[in-house]
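User: Can you recover a sequence for this backbone? Please restate the input before giving your answer.

Assistant: Of course. Working from this structure:
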């Protein structure tokens, strides 16, 4: 009787163990089982094996009472079953470890995914120009965009104008990774092209220009909170924007933009923002701006901004150095403004001294403390240094004020603006007094007209505008500009900072321009923006540029019409 009871117990334990093994084995075949479930099943299996082992020991003890051959056979059978169960448990254990590894990998991927943001933009713009006057070199732009290379060259035909239409496409994709609290990595790739005119991200496919349309637009890393201070060091290729883009901008309207290669120190608190910059000018938004690919052009800058010093406004103090030591006749700055001398007095290639300009400026931007319907911006710069063989002495001022009728329908804003930049009245006095516009986005907010035929150089610009919002998704703006030259003996500077036509000189080296009138031009701009969907926006515009007496007397009677339709999709 004792033997039979013991045997029943052993058989029952064995059945329980087999059941646990079966259940565990089945669980490994089910993809939906979690690591937690697997661990529970393995624990049940271990418990069954332990119980079965104890039962075997009881059987062994029973051998003392009854050592029949049947009992020995039963014990051996049970030992074999235990061995089998242990192999099953080993297999289950391995499966458990595999599941844990996969779970860990999944968690790592999940954490990585949380740190990395992916996005991009596709921007397509169709433009039409009628009577557009092109720059005297192949680096012509309209609306800040490079023109196809097959257009007339006013260097040989100064009165040439262009009737043209084209479509530009810009695609950018980016990845932004906050690796940890001290490290951020940002990468942005770009494809920029004009339909029907394959080119590069810095121009079109001409002789001597790399025929590539895919490029690294930005690629940098941030070292954040250095030494537990509000200090960030940014190193790599990057866009830089200060204020209203008047002296440093990313040239966002261009099909390829402007970036700088170098380092940037940023200090940011609730009250102060400071920057120190040392970079090379890599892509400045204009085709073939420097025949040496801007390899010799550096920009050094520093900024100190006070966020709360002036109630309701941001106060910025700036220093910028433009250092272009390219001594060839192709120095972009000198050649574009007529001061690049290809040969010396003996007819040999000239070694130009290059350009080093020091710019000191200040900007205040904000709203009146007790009347936030009034917004204003004031900005001023003074320059000194070396402009080729000349001494740089120039300055500029910009003032903008607007009033928004917040309680009225469509919330209209009426604005007024005056911009001034000095010009050079005597080309032979050893001084260069034309303000250098440095690295602007002149198209930004229509600073000097949306058609981009005017730069912040040798200029008086009187502007008025009105902006309304018929709906929360739509904005309509109309602008009027009246341009005068600051010095009639200087020239007309286009948005790419080059003279619209080479400056004529008389036998004494003085300007041979007709200086009877300072009326440069007038411009009317109409722009409409519409947020079609959250990620889709539409921008349309029309501009008319009418030549004033100065342009008519010195170049030609030029009237230009320009229109565009742009869609931007972000993701």
């Amino acid at each position: 009787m004792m033997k039979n009871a013991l045997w029943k117990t052993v058989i029952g334990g064995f059945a329980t163990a087999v059941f646990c093994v079966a259940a565990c084995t089945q669980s490994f075949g089910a993809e939906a089982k979690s690591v937690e479930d697997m661990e529970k099943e393995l624990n049940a299996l271990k418990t069954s094996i332990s119980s079965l082992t104890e039962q075997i020991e009881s059987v062994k003890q029973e051998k003392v009472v009854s050592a029949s051959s049947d009992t020995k056979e039963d014990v051996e059978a049970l030992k074999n079953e235990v061995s089998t169960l242990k192999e099953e448990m080993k297999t289950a254990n391995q499966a458990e470890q595999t599941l844990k590894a996969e779970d860990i990998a999944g968690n790592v991927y999940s954490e990585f995914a949380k740190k990395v943001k992916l996005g991009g933009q596709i921007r397509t713009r169709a433009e039409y120009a009628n009577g557009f006057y092109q720059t005297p070199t192949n680096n012509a732009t309209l609306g800040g965009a490079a023109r196809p290379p097959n257009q007339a060259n006013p260097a040989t035909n100064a009165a040439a104008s262009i009737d043209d239409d084209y479509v530009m496409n810009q695609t950018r994709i980016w990845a932004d990774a906050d690796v940890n609290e001290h490290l951020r990595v940002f990468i942005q790739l770009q494809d920029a092209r004009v339909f029907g005119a394959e080119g590069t991200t810095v121009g079109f496919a001409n002789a001597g220009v790399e025929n590539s349309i895919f490029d690294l637009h930005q690629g940098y890393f941030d070292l954040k909170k250095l030494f537990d201070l509000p200090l960030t060091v940014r190193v790599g290729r990057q866009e830089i924007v200060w204020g209203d883009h008047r002296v440093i901008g990313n040239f966002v309207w261009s099909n390829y933009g402007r970036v700088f290669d170098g380092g940037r120190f940023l200090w940011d608190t609730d009250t102060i923002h400071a920057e120190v910059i040392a970079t090379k000018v890599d892509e400045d938004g204009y085709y073939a701006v420097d025949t040496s690919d801007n390899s010799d052009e550096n920009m050094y800058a520093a900024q100190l901004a006070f966020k709360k010093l002036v109630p309701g406004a941001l106060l910025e103090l700036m220093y910028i150095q433009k250092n272009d030591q390219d001594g060839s006749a192709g120095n972009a700055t000198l050649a574009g403004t007529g001061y690049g001398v290809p040969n010396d007095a003996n007819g040999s290639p000239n070694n130009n001294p290059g350009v080093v300009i020091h710019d000191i400026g200040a900007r205040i931007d904000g709203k009146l403390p007790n009347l936030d319907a009034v917004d204003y911006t004031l900005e001023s710069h003074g320059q000194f240094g070396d402009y080729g063989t000349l001494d740089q002495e120039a300055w500029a001022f910009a003032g903008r004020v607007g009033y928004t009728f917040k309680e009225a329908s469509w919330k209209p804003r009426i604005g007024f603006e005056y911009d001034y930049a000095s010009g050079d009245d005597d080309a032979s006095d050893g001084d260069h007094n034309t303000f250098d516009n440095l690295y602007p986005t002149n198209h930004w907010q229509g600073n000097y007209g949306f058609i981009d035929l005017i730069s912040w150089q040798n200029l008086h610009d009187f502007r008025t505008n009105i902006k309304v919002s018929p709906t929360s998704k739509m904005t309509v703006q109309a602008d009027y500009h009246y341009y005068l030259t600051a010095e009639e003996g200087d020239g007309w500077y286009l948005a790419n900072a080059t003279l619209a036509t080479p400056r004529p000189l008389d036998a004494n080296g003085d300007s041979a321009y007709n200086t009877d009138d300072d009326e440069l031009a007038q411009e009317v701009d109409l722009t409409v923006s519409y947020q079609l969907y959250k990620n889709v926006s539409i921008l349309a515009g029309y501009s008319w540029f009418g030549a004033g007496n100065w342009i008519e007397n010195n170049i030609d009677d030029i009237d230009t019409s320009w229109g565009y339709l742009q869609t931007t999709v972000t993701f």
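That completes the design. The chain has a mean pLDDT of 80.
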